[in-house]
């Protein structure tokens, strides 16, 4: 039987530099000789596309409907991508997972502790969540420097501050908080130190 793979997740507010860190970590783990898979939520599946389409258009969706879409998207992702890869022994690195639902849909006024409870019961537990931390004014500056148009629903500063408050409240054994300041390479070194301390991969 193949040994079950490891499941690593990156979380953080928009503009914290997460996506760059996903790529750097996947490359480092692959260079250490492991099978890897980089993936993300919301996915490009039916629900994920709907979510992105609405967010870009700035359409106000009922928070409960939005929650349902993110969870449906996650069900598809777990069943079609995450579980098969973990069962094949892959190291899976995922850009956002259920703690984003906790923080973002919590910031939309839903009961974040309830969301955490139901998601933790329904979906595989990550081995490690790397929560990239950065002051919201800094992440907002980064977002405004990005070439693409700002995405109005989730990326405005007051909303990001509410997301940040919930991320700060989370206290779970699998969360490792990473200082997101400095160059991508400096943050990557902090990420690698955390991965080394927690998992035998690097
Ligand atoms: P993001 O990873 O930022 O995608 P992209 O890099 O394509 O912009 O995710 C899109 C937005 O969706 C982001 O603002 C966070 C939000 N989100 C939720 O509100 N709930 C969730 O469960 C997830 C996974 C993401």
Q: CATH homologous superfamily - what is it?
A: P-loop containing nucleotide triphosphate hydrolases
The count of DSSP E runs of length 2 or more, i.e. the number of strands, is 5
The amount of helix comes to 55-70%
Total domain modules: 1
CATH topology: Rossmann fold
Q: Assign the CATH architecture.
A: 3-Layer(aba) Sandwich
What overall geometry do the principal axes of the alpha carbons give? Answer: globular
Report the average pLDDT across residues. 94
Distance between the termini: 23 Å
Identify the CATH class: Alpha Beta
The stretches of 5 or more residues where confidence is low (pLDDT under 50) are none
Question: H/E element string?
Answer: EHEHHEHHEHHHEH
Explain what this protein looks like in three dimensions.
- By secondary structure, the chain is α/β, with parallel strands linked by helices.
- The chain has helices at about 20-30, 45-55, 65-85, 100-105, 110-120, 135-145, 150-155, 155-170, 185-200; strands spanning about 5-10, 35-40, 90-95, 130-135, 175-180.
- It has a single domain, classed as P-loop containing nucleotide triphosphate hydrolases (Rossmann fold).
- Helices cover about 55% and strands about 15% of the residues.
- A 5-stranded parallel β-sheet has the order 2-3-1-4-5, sandwiched between helices.
- The mean pLDDT is about 95.
- The site of thymidine-5'-diphosphate has 12 residues, from helix 4.
What characteristics describe this protein?
binds thymidine-5'-diphosphate, 202 residues, alpha/beta, globular, 9 helices, Rossmann fold
